[in-house]
Specification:
By secondary structure, this protein is mainly alpha-helical. The protein has a single domain, classed as Amino acid/polyamine transporter I, CATH 1.20.1740.10. It has 19 helices and six strands.
């Protein structure tokens, strides 16, 4: 019990920064902000807007984005405080280890593995849909047998059905290409990401600037066809409507689904160890990227639902198809090309973050150091775990349907945010003297609001997501008690302390 709740001292975390097996500090505030925008703007705008508006919220998806963004702002302020205090790789995992103890650190680390791996697979799916839409403009087509996942999910009936295909080939190919780029190095990856970010920002501004002239306000009526709530409690809707499968519908249900679109700011904190001046640059990157992207999300959602009735939105390529329905073929071409670039940058940042979680956990002994903690001597990247991540993402992206992947990511991410907000409250009590270059304002109000809003969104997801989360965490606990607990650095420290005590 002593080991399970042992906390990793702050001085130990900071001491790790002085070793040779650390990452290269090459990222400034602009690069970190670009990484955040690169992860946030992409699949959320270009893919999930369509699913959430069509299935969950209708035109009120704009309120869904606003509520999800509000929840993220509270969490982002808490993340910023921790990132400035402990500028090492690991994000919420590292923060949990310093505040809640080893067992909670393992749980949140295992949860983050689920978050980033499945998020990457979801993004690869979105990339595939837009790539196929793009080449379709030129009369080209991927053979049907390799065009999508072999199963699909019907949200109305809550059942799976076969599509008659083998796997999503474009999703697998883009994953392999991104993996190669990531092994090369963080500086090269960040430069590639910045170029992609500029392209997609241009496309987003184009969508807003051109699409606003094709808005029919009648498409916003009724504004909230599924209601303004959509809150459930383990499969029982307690506020608002639900579909025939029992899944909640409404603004909150829409916010829970599109919450995936915001997790990019989380990835900024995983790169704190690679920031030139993490105490200043990481909070700037987190907060700036979140504010910019929230505004753009709301505007794009308003334009798309104004251009096309919500129940006629194409869930695979909603933005490009909206312009296609208005006869704007030239815009469809630019948007599809920009979406491909934009979603590529999201995939890059998601897959960039995953190996850094592995690295932090391997340093603590939870995972084999030789595989997950090995930093390439030349590129200074966790290359083995990057390749392993690429293989896993390619398998998920090629075989699982988009709707299942998106919802599975969201509940894991929200759980991580609840832990980070809770950890800020704990650290303010247990380590009031610790240096905090950035302090979250209005504590305890901000972290408490972060916990409440994230829990509301967790309960606005279908109950199946809770079971998937519990199963994943159950598998993680088995690994912890059979391997991680025996090999953790805290295990060695406690044994050493006990040995000294007996003497």
């Amino acid at each position: 019990m002593k080991q399970m709740f042992a906390k990793k001292p702050l001085h130990v975390l900071l001491e790790e920064m002085k070793g040779e097996n650390r990452l290269r500090r090459v990222l400034g505030p602009a690069a970190l902000t670009s990484l955040g925008v690169g992860a946030i703007i992409g699949t959320g705008i270009f893919v999930l807007t369509g699913i959430a508006a069509h299935d969950k919220a209708g035109p009120a998806i704009t309120l869904s984005f606003a509520f999800a963004g509000l929840a993220c702002i509270f969490a982002a302020l808490c993340y910023s405080e921790f990132a400035s205090m402990v500028p090492v790789a690991g994000s919420a995992y590292t923060y949990a280890y310093a505040t809640l103890g080893e067992l909670f650190a393992w749980i949140i680390g295992w949860d983050l593995i689920l978050e980033y791996a499945v998020a990457s697979a979801t993004v690869a799916h979105g990339w595939s849909h837009y790539f196929q839409n793009f080449i379709g403009i030129f009369g080209l087509k991927i053979p049907e047998i390799f065009a999508k996942s072999p199963t699909e999910f019907d949200p109305v009936s809550g059942t799976f059905f076969a599509t008659g295909t083998l796997f999503d080939l474009p999703a697998i190919i883009i994953t392999i290409l991104v993996t190669i780029i990531l092994v090369k190095g963080i500086k090269e990856s960040a430069g590639f990401n910045t170029a992609m970010v500029l392209v997609k920002l241009f496309v987003v501004v184009l969508v807003i600037g051109v699409g606003v002239f094709y808005i029919d306000t009648n498409n916003w009526k009724p504004f909230a066809p599924f209601g303004f709530t959509g809150l459930s409690l383990f499969g029982h809707t307690i506020m608002g409507q639900s579909n025939t499968a029992g899944a909640p519908l409404g603004v909150l249900a829409g916010a829970a689904m599109i919450f995936f679109a915001y997790i990019g700011f989380d990835s900024v904190s995983t790169h704190a160890e690679e920031a030139k001046n993490p105490q200043r640059d990481v909070p700037i990157g987190i907060i700036t990227s979140l504010i910019v992207c929230t505004i753009l999300y709301i505007l794009v959602a308003a334009v798309i639902t104004g251009m096309v009735p919500y129940n006629q939105i194409n869930i695979d390529a909603p933005v490009a198809d909206a312009f296609k329905q208005k006869g704007l073929a030239w815009a469809q071409f630019i948007i599809s090309a920009g979406a491909i670039a934009g979603i590529t940058s999201v995939l890059l940042v998601m897959m960039l973050s995953q190996p850094r979680i592995f690295l932090a956990m391997a340093r603590d002994g939870f995972l084999p150091q030789g595989l997950f903690g090995d930093v390439h001597p030349k590129y200074r990247t966790p290359w083995k775990s990057t390749i392993l991540t690429g293989i896993f993402v390619a398998i998920l992206g090629g075989l699982l349907p988009l709707r299942i992947l998106a919802e599975l990511v969201n509940i894991g991410t929200l759980f991580a945010f609840v832990v980070v907000c809770s950890a800020v409250l704990i650290m303010r009590k247990t380590h009031p003297e610790a240096a905090r270059p950035f302090r979250a304002p209005f504590v305890p109000l901000v972290p408490i609001l972060g916990i409440i809003t994230c829990l509301i969104l967790m309960f606005s997801l279908p109950v199946e997501n809770w079971w998937r989360l519990f199963i994943w965490l159950g598998i993680g606990l088995v690994i912890y008690f059979t391997y991680g607990r025996k090999h953790s650095i805290m295990h060695a420290l406690i044994k050493e302390e006990n040995a000294k005590g007996t003497k």
